[in-house]
Amino acid sequence: MEKQDPKYYQTPLKDCYQEISRIVNLVYKKNIVLSDGQTEIAVTRGEMLTIYQYPKKLHHTINALLIHSKRFGDKKSQFYMTYEQIAEAVQCSKRNAIAHIKELEQKGLIKVTRNPIAGLPENHPNTYELNLDWLEAEPEIIVTVSVDKVDSYRDIRTILIMKAFPNNEWWNIKEILNKAKEQQAVKMQ
Description:
The chain has seven helices and five strands. With 189 residues, the protein is an alpha+beta fold.
C-alpha cells in the first residue's frame, strides 16, 4: 500500500490494511488457489486396489487424498489440502479427518509437512505426499473421470470402483488383492 499513489484511493490506510488482512485470511481459510486444479484425472485399477490393502476405516480418506493429489499435485506429487477439505471430501467431522491423517502419518502411508506462518493466527494447509505401497493389477485399467469439487470425491470413488472392477469383479476384491500382492512379492524376489 505504501507504494500505491494516494490519488487513486480515498480509503484511510488503516482500513486498507485491515481489508488486505481480511482477504488474505479468507484466502487461507478457504484454501483458495489460483488454479482450479485438474478436472479430468486418470486413476488406475492398481491405485484403487492399493487403497484396499489398508484398514477399512481409512479407505475414504486415502481415496480423497489420491484424488486431490491427482488434481493438485506438483511434479514431486506433493499437494496442499486443508482438514476442512478432507472432512468435506470424506463426509466426516474435522476431528475424524485429523485423526485419520495422524494415523496415516504414523503408519508411514503419507508424509505430512506442516507449514506454520510465524506471527499469524492462521497456518498454511499441510503439504501431503502419498507413500503407499502401490500395487499393479491385472488387467491394468485406467479410468478417467471429471472432478470439479472436493465434495464430489466420495461419489467419484464409487464411479472409479465400478469402472476399475467391471462385471461385478468388486465382489471378489479380496482375491484380486491377494493375487496382486503375490505378483508383487514375486517381482521383488
